[in-house]
Amino acid sequence: MTVVQRPVRAAGCVLWRRAAGEDGLEIALVHRPKYDDWSHPKGKLKRGESALAGAVREVAEETGMSCRPGAPLPTSTYVANGRPKQVRYWAAEAVAGAFTPNNEVDRLEWLTPSAARHRLTQERDRPLVDALLAALHLA
């Protein structure tokens, strides 16, 4: 008998802000020292927490920013630590706050979409940049 594992449920945002320059916006990426990777802010949902509430909470915890969530973006499904994981994403505009390094995230960088695409460690995170641009009608 095969046991089907329920996926780990997580959520996050492609966090952006308006900026001067050719793209008109910047995307926030976080560096997690535990994995030495660059990613969009995301994390596991708490019991009973909605995906959108979890995404907004994770942005606040990892970046120090409050955000205004917008369009849903593609869901990412992959295997992490031998278990299936499903991460729901939203576009979210940063509206206030300031980053303070913590145990989970030691750096935050605001990058142009092109630079963000190149900095992301996981290939699966790169299409989210294009999905954000499409959602904002900038693609």
From TrEMBL:
Pfam families documented for this protein: NUDIX (PF00293)
SUPFAM superfamilies found in the cross-reference section: Nudix
Domain Nudix hydrolase as annotated: residue spans: 6-134
State the UniProt keywords alphabetically: Hydrolase
What domain of life?
Bacteria
What protein is this chain from? Answer: DNA mismatch repair protein MutT
Q: Which organism does this sequence originate in?
A: Streptomyces kronopolitis
Kindly list the organism's lineage.
Answer: Bacteria, Bacillati, Actinomycetota, Actinomycetes, Kitasatosporales
